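Researcher: Let's do a round of design. I'm pasting the structure tokens now; please hold your answer until I've finished.
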């Protein structure tokens, strides 16, 4: 028994060491630096909660929080709707086309965020301008030079990137639904909508838990797409929290202040994620 316990810790030790070095120690350092005036090279003094008080008066940081929150809500809803619709489509009986469509829909997730940003930047700046010139529709002009259209540009990019990934999760749960239930509903005269709403949708509750958690956490952490597509412009009106923290740390060299922002952002994400998991898990047990 002791040998098994020793073997267990021997195999676990490298993972624990790596997590400690990569996550635990930097986190503790970050918490410490958030209470100091740290510029990335040296600590110039202990300032207590001054950094946290300062960020509550930082209009740009508060705006970026609001912008990121709105982006996250719209993106999470859009990604899950698109992912579920794609999953329902590719689980139809289409033979080898199922595999083809699954591959096509999943491919955007394999592209890096920066490359995706430049791809969609080209679409918004060149393709949309071309459509505007051909049709005369002003709607397609200046998408990245306006805050509202810049917001929707980021949402469209993120849904396009994540939709196929979330589709895979929904596919796995749709395929696990017993055929007997669907056959019984057919015998009872249920149509396609009734099968989905009364049978498939309730049984997808665990998939919603996983998908909502993944999309929420990823939406809050968006940086490279934001940087490549709009760079926070115009006038920082499309700046996400991650970009605001990065700029504070590496452009202004206020590392301690940036750490305070990061700690607050971490707390917000943690609270939202825990609440989401609580309610979605509760829905699973209620069903």
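Researcher: That's everything. Go ahead.
Model: Designed sequence:
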């Amino acid at each position: 028994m002791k040998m098994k316990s020793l073997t267990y810790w021997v195999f676990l030790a490298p993972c624990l060491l790596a997590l400690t070095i990569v996550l635990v120690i930097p986190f503790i350092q970050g918490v410490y630096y958030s209470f100091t005036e740290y510029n990335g090279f040296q600590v110039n003094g202990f300032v207590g909660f001054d950094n946290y008080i300062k960020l509550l008066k930082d209009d740009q940081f508060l705006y970026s929080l609001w912008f990121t929150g709105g982006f996250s809500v719209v993106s999470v809803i859009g990604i899950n709707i698109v992912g579920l619709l794609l999953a329902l489509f590719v689980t139809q009986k289409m033979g080898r086309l199922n595999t083809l469509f699954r591959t096509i829909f999943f491919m955007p997730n394999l592209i890096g965020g920066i490359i995706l940003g430049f791809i969609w930047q080209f679409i918004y700046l060149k393709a949309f301008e071309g459509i505007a010139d051909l049709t005369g529709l002003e709607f397609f002009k200046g998408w990245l030079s306006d805050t509202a259209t810049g917001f929707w540009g980021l949402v469209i990019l993120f849904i396009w990137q994540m939709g196929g990934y979330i589709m895979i999760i929904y596919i796995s749960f749709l395929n696990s639904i017993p055929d007997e239930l669907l056959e019984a509903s057919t015998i009872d005269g249920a149509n396609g909508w009734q099968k989905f709403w009364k049978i498939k949708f309730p049984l997808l509750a665990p998939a919603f838990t996983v998908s909502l958690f993944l999309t929420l956490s990823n939406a809050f952490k968006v940086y490279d797409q934001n940087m490549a597509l709009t760079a926070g412009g115009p006038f920082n009106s499309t700046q996400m929290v991650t970009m605001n923290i990065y700029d504070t740390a590496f452009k202004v060299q206020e590392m301690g202040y940036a750490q305070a922002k990061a700690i607050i952002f971490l707390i917000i994400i943690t609270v939202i994620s825990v609440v989401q998991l609580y309610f979605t898990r509760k829905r699973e047990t209620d069903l």
